[in-house]
Amino acid sequence: MTQVNPYALETLSNFLKGKVIIVTGGNSGIGKAIVETVARLGARVVIDYRSHPEATEALEQEIGELGGSSFGVQADVGKLDDLQRLVQAAVDRYGRLDVMVNNAGIETRTSILDTTPEDFDKVLNVNLRGVFFATQYAAKQMITQGGGGRIINISSVHEDWPMPNNTPYCVAKGGVRMLTRTAGVELAPQGVTIVNVGPGAVATPINDSTMNNPELLARLNAAIPMGRMAQPEEIARVVAFLCSDAASYITATSIFADGGIMQSSPGL
Ligand code: BGC
Asked: Are 240 and 38 in contact (CB under 8 A)?
């Protein structure tokens, strides 16, 4: 029997051929892995970023060397003018927008008792308001250009599963859960599909404080049935599938890639 390496994504390089995909927060963490993965699969990628232009430039160069196409746009998803400019930049350069990946996110790791109004606004602004209006602007563009489109929101297991001491984050992700369901139902007749991807714990900068604390990391790994955090690429591959026509019948729902953490049970 022929052995096929499931990770040799290069062999699928026509999978996303020519699709125009925006990835917010695209120069680090899960966003960066999504950018690299979909570019390798033939997509034309708009890399949104807020800080570290040098990381974006390095990514553009890496994709260029692989024969792919991408460009960076500095835009803060917490600012609506920036979001509009981001969608417009994709259209100006590539003529259309096929997939909007709302990936950018932040967390404060504060409890209900010590979250300040400033913390609350900051998290909700990026993780929920930004996703809401990015969905609106992207969907309007997709409807105007015709032929439908797809919006993928990088949510979290915490859209449904409490994380004590990270309350504003959970509240925002819970909002994104209902945004995807409601907007997905509203926009299905117009060919715009919307899906959440819910990662569990992923080895990215957002989890630096856990990864730098061996005791905390051991407790986290013990809570995950698969016994380890995900690598960002393991989330990016799910997103790549959802960007493709292979995922044409999925909308208004969430797909979790969490190593089983949401179902974890001590068996007591
Ligand atoms: C959060 C992390 C957390 C992980 C698993 C993610 O959505 O950003 O802080 O470790 O979920 O609980």
From this structure: yes
